[in-house]
Amino acid sequence: MNLLSKLFRIKSPESSMPSGDPKTSGELVAEVTGGANLVEGKQTWELADNKKDDIDYMKKCCYAELKTMETADLVAAPYYFERVAILSRMKKNYEQEVSFCEGYIAAVEAYYQRHGIEGIADVRQGPRFQAIVKRLPKAKELLACEREAT
């Protein structure tokens, strides 16, 4: 059963907060996936602005996005992977940059091989995914140069 089916099965009273306000889509996803989309109790998007320069938080967001993708059949958001790549390059950690870029690209490609693209947005067409793909050759080149130097 995919995520939307699970979300639609949630009964009306259960899809509301105790105050009577409706739960957000993120809260429903957290409920259905057992919190796969949470980092330290927060939605990944809640950390995007104030933690964007903290590589440890961005990596946690990447792992949460991958877990959500596996659990809820929602494609992982590229933002966090791009941030890890950018921050890794700034720290000259080219191995980590390559690893996160390749890992994200492979996970997304596998997702679309399983699900196809009919009826769903193709994140591969977006600018962030394209930026990750574009930076990978340079990251590999920098990694190769680093390895040659040692």
Summarize the structure in words:
The chain is mainly α and 150 residues long. It has one domain. It is built from seven helices and two strands. The chain has helices at 3-9, 25-33, 44-47, 55-72, 79-90, 94-115, 127-149, and strands at 38-39, 42-43. Strands 1-2 form a two-stranded antiparallel ribbon. A hairpin with a 2-residue loop joins strand 1 and strand 2. Helix 4 packs antiparallel against helix 5 (79-90) and helix 6 runs antiparallel to helix 7. It is globular. It starts with a helix and ends with a helix. The model has no long low-confidence stretch (mean pLDDT 89).
**Helix proportion:** 55-70%
Assembly type: single chain
In total, the number of strands is 2
Q: List SSEs in N-to-C order.
A: HHEEHHHHH
Number of helices: 7
Rg, Cα atoms, Å: 17 Å
Distance between the termini: 50 Å
**Helix/sheet category:** mainly alpha
Instruction: Report mean pLDDT, rounded to a whole number.
Output: 89
Which tags fit this structure?
7 helices; 150 residues; mainly alpha; 63% helix; two-stranded antiparallel ribbon
What's the gist of this structure?
The protein is mostly helical.
Question: Topology of this structure?
Answer:
Layout: H1 3-9, H2 25-33, E1 38-39, E2 42-43, H3 44-47, H4 55-72, H5 79-90, H6 94-115, H7 127-149
Antiparallel strand pairs: 1-2
Helix pairs in contact: 4-5, 5-6, 5-7, 6-7
